[in-house]
Amino acid sequence: MPTCRRRVIAVGAALLASPLPTFAQSRRLRVGFLGGIAPDASTQRAALDPFRQGLRDLGYLAGQNLEIHYRWAEGQPDRLPALAAELLALNLDVLVTMGPGPAFAAKAATTAVPVVATVVDNPVLVGLIADFSRPGGNVTGISSFGSELVAKRLQLLKELVPAIRRVAILMNPATTTRASMEELLREFGRQMGLSIQLLEARTPDQFTAAFDAMARERAEGILVLADATFWTHRARLHDLVAKSRLPSVWGHRDYLIGGGLASYQADYPPIFKRAAAMVDAIAKGAKPAVTPFEQATKLELVINLKSAKELGISVPQSLLVAADDVIR
Question: What pTM was computed for the model?
Fold first, then answer.
């Protein structure tokens, strides 16, 4: 009898020492990750590491109860539909996308597999979802702010260059539709006393023509809207900005490595940690149709003092104090 009692106690202690089974421990979660760029060191640091850490924090361990399959378009948006199809053929539980192009490719490819879309500005305005609070389909996710961020970048440029009057904005119409921008930009320009020139480039071979147009219109500064193609070929854009000697505001801090003046963008690591939590919620039964599409809560301001000195720009102390990082 004592031996039997000891055996029961031992078994009970073992059960108490082990966590109760959860979805994350009872089966292997299959996640797809579709990106429009290439998985370089910056992408690892800003997106992939926080996403994987977020999943680990929730009990998902690669090779045990988690599989993540990656596909990258490497700045070639025409590859996205085929890459989305490849991932969906793997019988995914959730598909995570990074950027607007991958989000639309995923939406077009499936109405059944839940999609968590990240780094998409204005998901309602561009037609990705029906409503922030009730997306209404198989897509939910996290927005990295929207048109209001363009206004904030224009304000930042004016603070850096108070006398500026003519600003060029470079965008990829494959990422952001011109129609969705033009009316807003007219209003922003009116409010700030700026003449705004909206220029398009879909491919790197269109960059030079865009900068030639800026020169003809005598642009005094430039905003470069973040885009997978622009990111992939950012070295070429950096060269053109340097030759133009235009103060430039960009969509992510890692654009500044090539000499950009400032960056103002949603802070990516918290977005991707939150995406991990959304994946977990969906794995446990949450439906994208009624899961609110969230918005990033933190913006990151980075100032490149080295570029400012080269351009002869005196950065206001108020901006240096407000900056999350200063490159010297």
Answer: 0.85
